[in-house]
Amino acid sequence: MDIVLLGAPGAGKGTQAELLADWLGVPAVSSGELFRAAMEANTPLGNQARGYIERGAYVPDDITVGMIAERLGRPDCARGVILDGFPRTEAQAEALARLLGEMGRAVDLVALILVPTEALVRRLSGRWSCPRCGAIYHETLSPPRVAGICDACGGTLQRRGDDAPEVQERRIEVYLEQTA
Q1: Which of 88, 95, 111, 135 could be a cystine partner for 65, CB 3.0 to 4.6 Å?
Q2: Burial of 118 (0-12, 13-18, 19+ CB in 10 A)
Q3: Do 92 and 65 meet the contact criterion of CB atoms below 8 Å apart?
Q4: Residue 171 annotated in active site
Q5: Is 127 a catalytic residue?
Q6: Residue 132, CA atoms < 13 Å, CB-side half-sphere
Q7: What is this structure's pTM?
Q8: pLDDT tens digits, one per residue of 11-49
Q9: Active site residue: 36, 71, 88, 105, which one?
Q10: Separation CA 88–CA 8 (nearest Å)
Q11: β-bridge partners, 30
């Protein structure tokens, strides 16, 4: 089963994707996580994406589609995938249809998660993550047991660079202008 979750940054796509992935037994694939992993590994696509992400802008379609195509080609995606944050543009949606069509598949379900802008900013501004294991926390909505320390692995929690208030606001503006 191939599912697409749409919504603004901070809408809860990642949380819902993980729940669905566990329930359906298929991987959750986040374009944002793919970008962060590629940037951390200093891959050519990751280095191309870095400047866009740090400004809160969308990464160009060719870079994004390349990363998604590579991920969909892995064996764990053969039975389906939950896509979080992709597609974001009409060109990306067309590319996804083409990629899945080449695999003899199609999108089975698209879900749009709507959240008021004020709630998005509040969610994003309180978000913390563990760079070691990837666990995500929120200052008030789901805090760790010990402030600043990951419950899962004991790592030191950090704010993502793209969760800075000025970047958040730009990310939401770009979503409203280009995707919504």
Answers
A1: 95
A2: exposed
A3: yes
A4: yes
A5: yes
A6: 9
A7: 0.78
A8: 999 989 999 999 999 999 998 889 888 998 999 888 888
A9: 88
A10: 10
A11: 84
Read off the pLDDT of residues 153-166 as tens digits, 9 standing for 90 and up. Answer: 999 999 877 667 77
Which class for 13: exposed (0-12), middle (13-18), buried (19 or more C-beta within 10 A)?
buried
Q: Which of 13, 36, 105, 123 is catalytic?
A: 13
| Category of 104 on φ-ψ map: left (φ > 0), alpha (ψ -120 to 50) or beta | left
CA dist., res. 58 & res. 119, Å (int): 21
SS3 string, 67-91, reads HHHHHHCCHHHCCCEEEECCCCCHH
Catalytic residue flag (residue 88): yes
Q: 50, 55, 122, 160: which is the annotated catalytic residue?
A: 160
Q: Does 74 participate in catalysis according to the annotation?
A: no
